[in-house]
Amino acid sequence: MDGETNRAREKVAMAGEVVLLDFWASMFGMRVRVALAEKGVKYEYKEEDLRNKSPLLLQMNPIHNKIPVLIHNGKPICESLIIVQYIDEVWHDRAPLLPSDPYQRAQARFWADFIDKKGELYWKNLN
Ligand SMILES: N[C@@H](CCC(=O)N[C@@H](CS)C(=O)NCC(=O)O)C(=O)O
Predict the structure, then answer these.
(1) Atom 16 in ligand 1: which residue has the minimum CA distance?
(2) How remote is the CA of residue 38 from the centroid of ligand 1, in Å?
(3) Could you identify the atom of ligand 1 that is nearest to the CA of residue 48?
(4) Which one of 49, 69, 101, 127 is CB 3.0 to 4.6 Å from 21, fit for a cystine?
(5) CB within 6 Å of ligand 1 — which residues?
């Protein structure tokens, strides 16, 4: 087996089973999709109807009943920023999601938090 095939197999083994419960227009879901794309993680995408949530979503995120939820090897991770951090930690061998400089990291976290708060307000006003 050549090196490339080996590396591809290792990637699949590390990824395990990855499922994303999401809604196409969600900026919170988009954040997770971008992180998975940056890391090159293959996953199964499950679109949710937010007016008629699936039993799987209610089971995987019983606290908030919201997307996105990342299900990794059967275990749910909720809240987009926490999911992104989890992705960065699990697939730490490639494409770091934050800059290495502490000040730049703080800046990136500030804007992520800013977008988070604005996004929640926007979503509340929409409903
Ligand atoms: N803080 C959450 C926000 C997630 C969120 O607001 N998701 C919305 C879609 S954009 C949702 O699932 N809404 C369904 C509901 O409120 O019942 C995160 O960052 O994941």
Answers:
(1) 66
(2) 22
(3) 12
(4) 69
(5) 23, 26, 28, 50, 65-68, 79-81, 123
pLDDT digits (tens, 9 = 90+) for 3-50: 655 554 455 445 689 999 999 999 999 999 999 999 999 999 999 999
Question: What are the DSSP calls for 26-81, one per residue?
Answer: -HHHHHHHHHHHHHT---EEEE--TTS--HHHHHH-TTT--S-EEEETTEEEESHH
Residues in the chain: 127
Decide which of 83 and 5 is more confident: 83
CA–centroid distance, residue 123 to ligand 1 (Å): 8
pLDDT at position 118 is 83
Residue whose Cα lies nearest atom 17 of ligand 1: it is 66
The structure's pTM equals 0.86
CA–CA separation, 15 vs 8, rounded Å?
11
